[in-house]
Structure formats: C-alpha cells, structure tokens
Amino acid sequence: MGEGRTTGRINLPAGFEFGTSTAAYQIEGAATEDGKGPSIWDTFTAEPGRIIDGSSGAVACDHYHRVGEDVALMKRLGADGYRFSVSWPRVFPTGSGPVNPAGLDFYDRLVDELVANGIAPMATLYHWDLPQALETASDGGAGGWLNRETALRFAEYAAVVAERIGDRVAHWVPVNEPNVVSLLGYAMGMHAPGKALLFDALPAAHHALLGHGLAVQALRAAGATSIGTANNHAPIRPANDTDADRAAADLFDALWNGMFADPVLLGRYPAMDGSSLGEAMPGPVAEDLAVISAPLDFYGVNYYNPMGVAAAPEGAEVPFVYGEVTGYPTTDFGWPVVPEGLTELLLHLRATYPGMPPVRITESGCSYNTGPDEHGVVDDQARIDYLDAHLRAVADAIEQGVDVRAYYCWSLMDNFEWAEGYTQRFGLVHVDYDTLVRTPKRSFDWYAETIRACR
Ligand code: GCO
Predict the structure, then answer these.
(1) Does 245 map to a domain?
(2) Residue range 287-315: mean pLDDT, rounded
(3) Could you list the residue range(s) of the whole structural domain that residue 155 is in?
(4) Ligand 1 test: best mutation among 127, 177, 333, most atoms within 8 Å of CB?
(5) Which one, of 53, 66, 59, lies nearest residue 31 by Cα?
(6) Which atom of ligand 1 is nearest to the CA of 176?
(7) 433 in the Ramachandran plot: left (φ > 0), alpha (ψ -120 to 50) or beta?
(8) Number of Cβ atoms within 10 Å of the Cβ of 203
(9) What is the end-to-end Cα distance of the chain in Å, rounded?
C-alpha cells in the first residue's frame, strides 16, 4: 500500500458514498414463484456435480419475502446506496414476449422501500441469471450470449425495467462482469451455462458487451442519467520472472481485463498475438464498438485480488495457467488479501484510460465463515481488517488523483456463492440457512461506524 495511514480515521473525501451489493439469484429465492421463469442457474445447479455442496438458489436468503427486514438492515447500516440485480426471468419468464407483472411489481416495491429509507438504488440488469429459454436457441443453434439475438432481447428487457422503476433508480449497471459471464460460463464451463468452448467462446464476450451498449441506449432513451459498469478487474502478475510467464500474463491480462475495458472506454479491442482481438469477434465489429463505447457516467469496478499467471506446458489447449497470487494471507475462500492491489488497479486504470469517468467500487469483500458464538455474536475481525485495509487503499488512490466516488461492499448478507454454493460467507450479515435468521456481524457494526465517521 502507498504512504497512506494504516490506523486512525480513513481519509475519504466529503460526499464519498458507502453501499452494499447483492444479486437476485444469490439472495432472492422464490425461484419458481409468481410467474418467474427458469434461469440458466436454475438449470446449472440441477446438474449433479456442478455446485460443491449440491445446493441452489431455490430458497437462498428468501429475500423475495423479506424486503422490509433487509432494507431495515441497510437503514441501520446507514448505507448511502444498495446495489441489487433484477432477475430477467422474473420480468420476462422466457426472456422476451409477455411481461410477468408480478416480477416487475417486486422490483417496484423494492425501490420504493429503498427510497422511503433514504437509500439510493443501484440496479444491475444482468447478474448472470439468463432466462433458460434464451440459452436453448429455438433453431437449435448457438444460444445464450453466443447468439447476437440475446443482446437485442436484453436491450428490450432493459427498456421495460427502466420504464417501470427508472424514475427511482439512482444508478444503472447493465451487465455484471461480462468477463466472468463469457470466460467462466462459455469458455471454461465453471459457471452456467457450463460450456467449455475455450476460444470459441469469444462471441459470448462480444455479445455481452453489445448487450451492455444496447442497454445503455435503452436506458438513455428512458432518461437515465447515471449508467456505468461492474467490471471485474485484477492486476495480473507473471507467476515467475520469465519471458514465457510474462507473455502468458500479458495474454491473460488482455483477455480478462483489456477485452472488457478497452471496448467500453476506448472503442476498440486490445491487441493479442500481434493482431486485434476484434478480428476474432463476430461482426459488424466496428459498428458494434461504436455502440459498446457509448459514454458512461461512472466506471464500476469489482475488485477482489491480483491473479498470477504462468505459461502452460507445451501443447496445452490454452497457453496460460491462472490462479491467485501467492505469498499473502488468504481468506477462507483461499483468495489472497492484497489491498495495495486495489490502489495499483485504480492507478493503472486511470493511466490506461485517461478519459475514464469517475470510478465506483461496485464490489469489494471477502469470505470468512465465522458463525455466531455462544452469545450469538459473529466476531469476524478478519473481515473488519479486510474492509479497513481496502477502504484505505481506495483513499490512497484518491490521494494520488483517482476520482473514486463510492465503495459498495460485497455483500450485505451471506448468500449463494455460485459454484461454491453456501460454503463461502461474504456477508456483513450472517444468514442461518436453516432458519433464515439474519445476524449482523461485528463487521456490520464496524462498517456502520466507519460510514458515520466518514460523513
Ligand atoms: C463476482 C460476482 C459476485 C460474487 C462475489 C464473490 O464478482 O463474482 O459479482 O456475484 O458472489 O464476487 O465471488
């Protein structure tokens, strides 16, 4: 970390915003209720072996039936904002066609509750729960984000949601982490829809980016004035100081970071192996890039930790092997705790994209599985230390000239952690999955106090 302080008041500017983040499939439950259609995660979690504990988001935190209770927790936190996601298959059960009124009604009630409690809604339109009907292409061809039509359906969905709740939504994020959507969902088979197409998955990246751009157009048409991203970025480091590992790290950096930041912020794809990645994308790429690079009001960054990359053995299907950097303390998830990596990332983004709009940290957090002790207290000091260090890393970046406006902690509450099911707890609030009882952790009280102290 820079020369910033490691104790005492965290030196964040007046007006800096604090929030928390969640996602529909991870907290709502009610997976088949009130007309909601199946998503690719409902399908994926039903496939044996896909989820480490065999669980799903069928019930999750049952947020669908507990909005009042959960917004009251945000109010008690003193949070400025709350980032949630809208479940596309709750609004359009088959991805397009007839709207499900009960689905829109739910988000109408949610934003009303947030506004009534002085909490600014940040709505993510896509946090991975694609309507299953769009994944299963009607013509038997490529479905989901491999199919350009999905981007068009996404823009139509964006327009309908904006019309209903746009008057109360403060900030919009069209697509959460298009790199994870395309690379983990279509290239490596680790996330829904579970395809392992390797470089044949690149069209999914392009169409997710096109969906972002078309949704920005739809949101602007509906009067939106604060639209951004939630891009998962990580400093990429060669595992060893060798030419081969440095080349592998550069390639992975282009795929993980540049392929999703450059089109949005520069209107072009990064180079890879001496030519533009755009040449690997389905056309019309130039026209699409003009849509994808529509001006934004903030650049949302999801940060967890730097990644280490090594060259793959000769003949491997993919020329790199990636993993977490080593030599640092780790969370219960095994992710390294590297707060200075967040300062490094923010400085790198500003240097690489001089015209970048203000930054919002749309996700930052950690998994520690501490549960209630005999007194019912969840003493998660490790999460307090993590959040303290990462907020100071943001303060360091701001002191060095990066315009960062907000920090949204992932997550408000423990929730369904994708392929890890319920084995990883990221929440400021502990959730007992048997009783669904919420217990604010010590980190919740610390975050509330920090928010007050920084006002
Ligand atoms: C992500 C997703 C979240 C995760 C969180 C912890 O960044 O992967 O946006 O849904 O749950 O980041 O992995």
Answers:
(1) yes
(2) 98
(3) 17-453
(4) 177
(5) 59
(6) 9
(7) alpha
(8) 20
(9) 24
What is the residue type of 279? E
| Peptide linkage before 336 cis (omega within 30 of 0) | no
Catalytic residue, from 28, 113, 135, 177: name it: 177
One-letter amino acid identity for 36?
K
User: What pLDDT is stored for residue 1 in this prediction?
Assistant: 41
381 membership: H or E segment, kind and range: helix 381-399
* Residue 449 a catalytic site member: no
**Distance, CA of 108 to CA of 23 (rounded, Å):** 16
CA-to-CA dists, residue 361 to 17, 21, 138, 342, 352, angstroms: 10, 10, 38, 10, 18
Yes or no: say if 191 and 173 are a contact pair by the CB < 8 Å rule: no
Domain count, the chain: 1
| Residue 338 · residue 305 · CB < 8 Å | yes
Asked if residue 4 has pLDDT above 80, the reply is no
287 occurs within a structural domain: yes
Question: What pLDDT does residue 137 have?
Answer: 74
pTM of the model: 0.98
Type of residue found at 254: A
3-class DSSP assignment, residue 1: coil
What are the pLDDT digits (tens) for 400-421?
999 999 999 999 999 999 999 9
**Cα 286 from Cα 405, distance rounded (Å):** 32
- Give a yes or no: residue 381 inside a domain: yes
When the pLDDT of each residue in the chain is averaged and rounded to a whole number, the result is: 97
CATH for 242: 3.20.20.80
Q: What is the pLDDT of residues 122-139, one digit of tens each?
A: 999 999 999 999 998 767
